[in-house]
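hey so i finally got around to running the thing on that chain from the lab meeting. sorry it took forever, my laptop kept dying and i had to restart like 3 times. anyway pasting the input first so we r on the same page abt which one it is
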Amino acid sequence: MPRNNDKPKRIFRMFNADEDVLDFKFSYNEEETAELHARLNGSTTITEHDLRRVSLWKSDRVLCVSEGTLAKLNELSAVEGLTLTDSRVKEVIDDLVLSQGIGFPMASAILKFINPTLFPIIDVRAYRALTGVQPSYATYSYEKYINYAEKVADVARRLKRPIREIDEQLYCYDKRHNGKI
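ok and heres what got predicted. didnt touch it at all, straight out
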């Protein structure tokens, strides 16, 4: 029997690639978004300053990243034919997540700016729209991110759209259909 202060579990509408349409106008800090893509996409000279810009783009927070992590990030950016399951991806994600001010959502935002054809941003809204489950910060993991990224890639293939658009569209979809976080 539920206690009086227990909230009923909310049911979220989940995106269905066979029935739903992703045709939202995604608009978020357009000038900075364009500058970050121009600066970081394919760059092999990524600096902590660049990561701070992505951090501020994503949310207002302070971060600190080691020189070793920056070196690994720059090396990762130069890899041709990189895949999500490459061990270097896991190593960079682990290093980023252990850095001050960076969790999985921020790490995925950094990776998206570096390689938007491979890495989507894992965001509460996009994740919820894709899976029907609202993640808590404590439940993020490398495995959860890779599984999510593979699902986003599958939707991109099915809809014949770039990965870089799908996470944005899922964010908009969730905002319209599922309301507040």
